[in-house]
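Bench notes, afternoon.
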Amino acid sequence: MNIDALIHRFHHPTVTAIALFGSHARGDAGPYSDIDFIRFVNSDEADPPGSGSHLIDDTLVVVTNYTPSTVNRWFTDPTAAVQVIAGLRQAKPLWDPNGEFARLQARAHAFTWTDELQVKADLWASEQMVGWIEEVHKGLEGLHRQDVGRLLNASFGLSWGLAGVVKVQRGVLFYSDNNVIDQVMASVGVDTLWSQLCAISFGVGEVHDRPPSLRERVVAGLHLYTVTAELLSTAIQPEHVTMVRRTVDRINIDLEDAYHGEQ
C-alpha cells in the first residue's frame, strides 16, 4: 500500500493531521487487516469527503474524521478514554506539519485515570447494570420457554454487555478490539469466578470438557450478572441499588442449582 498516495487522496484543507491507528501502526497486521486511516480536522463543523470504507489495492482502508470536541472527549469521558487512549499511544503519524498530532500523542502518554473519571465511570456502569436487566429477563424467559431467539438476544448483553461494563468501570485502556476481553479478564483476574463465567458466556470456556451450549452460555451469563453486581457493588448508585439487588435475587432464585451444565 502506497501511504503517500493515500495521504494525497484523502487530504483536505480542513485536515490538520493524519495518523495510522490499529494493527498496521502496531506492526502486527495480517493479510486481512484493514488500514485505520485517521484524519484530524480543524473544527467541529468540518466533514471532509472520503470518510468511510474503501477497497484500495485489495486492502480495506477505513477513513475516519475526528473533530476537536471528539478528541477532547477522549480525555474527559471514561467510555471514550478506554476506547482510544491506548491506541492513540501506539499510533503512527503520517502527516503532521504543525506538530498537532505529536502534542496529542504526548497528552495520551501522560494520561492518567483520575478520580473525576472514576466517578463518571461508576455512574455509567451503574446505569448499564440497570440497562442490562432487560437481557437478564430475556435470558430467564428464554430458558423457561426454551426459546432460541430470546436466548440469542440475552447472550449478547450477558457477555459483551457485562464485559463492557467492567471494562469502563475499571478503566481498562484496551489497544485492540481483538484483545479487549483478555485485557478485561486480566484486570479482574484470569482465575477468578468472574473470568470463568465470562469465558463460558462467550462460548470460549469449556463445560464438562466441551464447548458450552447456548443454554449454558446464557446460564453462565446470568450468573455473571450476579458476580458483576458484587464486583461493582461500590459503584452502584443509590437510585439503582434496589433494581440491581432484586435482579440478582431473581437470578439466584430462578437458577438455584441450575448451573451444572448439560449432561
